[in-house]
Amino acid sequence: MRAVVQRVNGASVTVDGETVGEIVGEGLCVLVGVTHEDGPEQAEKLARKLWGLRVLSGEKSCSDLGAPLLVISQFTLYGDARKGRRPTWQAAAPGEVAEPLVAEVCARLRALGAEVAEGRFGADMKVSLLGDGPFTVLVEV
User: Fold this and answer.
1) CA-to-CA distance for 10 and 70, rounded, in angstroms?
2) Which sign, positive or negative, has the C-alpha torsion 119, 12, 117, 32?
3) pLDDT of amino acid 1
4) Model pTM greater than 0.90?
5) From CA 8, how far away is CA 98, in angstroms rounded?
6) CA 58 to chain CA centroid, nearest Å
7) Per-residue pLDDT at 129
8) Domains by residue range for the chain, with CATH
9) Are 116 and 69 in contact (CB under 8 A)?
10) What CA–CA distances, in Å, run from 125 to 54, 118, 121, 129, 133?
11) pLDDT by residue for the chain (141 residues), tens digit each?
């Protein structure tokens, strides 16, 4: 699993003009990609990593501050554009594999005590965020 983690001061996802997920104030916007070898173990590791990642103000984590997370599925994180001009998506897991694993990351975060908002899997999502820093890190488990 791969995640692009952005420190934000608010973020939201809309689908067809409807807000489907939103966090207010300091938190993390997390784009999650799933590859073929991923399973529940990687979902659990990623959730624990995100909850404890000390990238918020004062080198605090979401668990320290009770800060929310907006989790959005993003198969394009496994795009490969090394050859030619059109990326391939062969490393990205198919939807029937990826969707339950992204949901598992969210469920594990909630079990840890996190406030989690989500995008809508497979939808044409519009993501808005107010980047804080900007501060962006790549996390792989």
Assistant:
1) 9
2) positive
3) 98
4) yes
5) 25
6) 22
7) 97
8) 2-81+88-140 (3.50.80.10)
9) yes
10) 28, 11, 9, 13, 24
11) 999 999 999 999 999 999 999 999 999 999 999 999 999 999 999 999 999 999 999 999 999 999 999 999 999 999 999 999 999 999 999 999 999 999 999 999 999 999 999 999 999 999 999 999 989 999 999
What string of DSSP letters covers 75-134?
GGGG-B-SSSSS-B-TTBPPHHHHHHHHHHHHHHHHHTT--EEE--TTS-EEEEEEEEEE
d(CA 126, CA 34): 20
Amino acid present at 29: C
The torsion of the CA quartet 10, 16, 17, 21, rounded to 10 degrees, works out to -30
pLDDT for position 61: 98
The residue assigned the tokens 């990326």 is: 87
Nearest to 14 by CA among 136, 134, 129, 131: 129
Which two tokens mark 58? 């004062």
What residues are annotated to the active site?
Answer: 74-76
* Amino acid (one-letter) located at 34: V
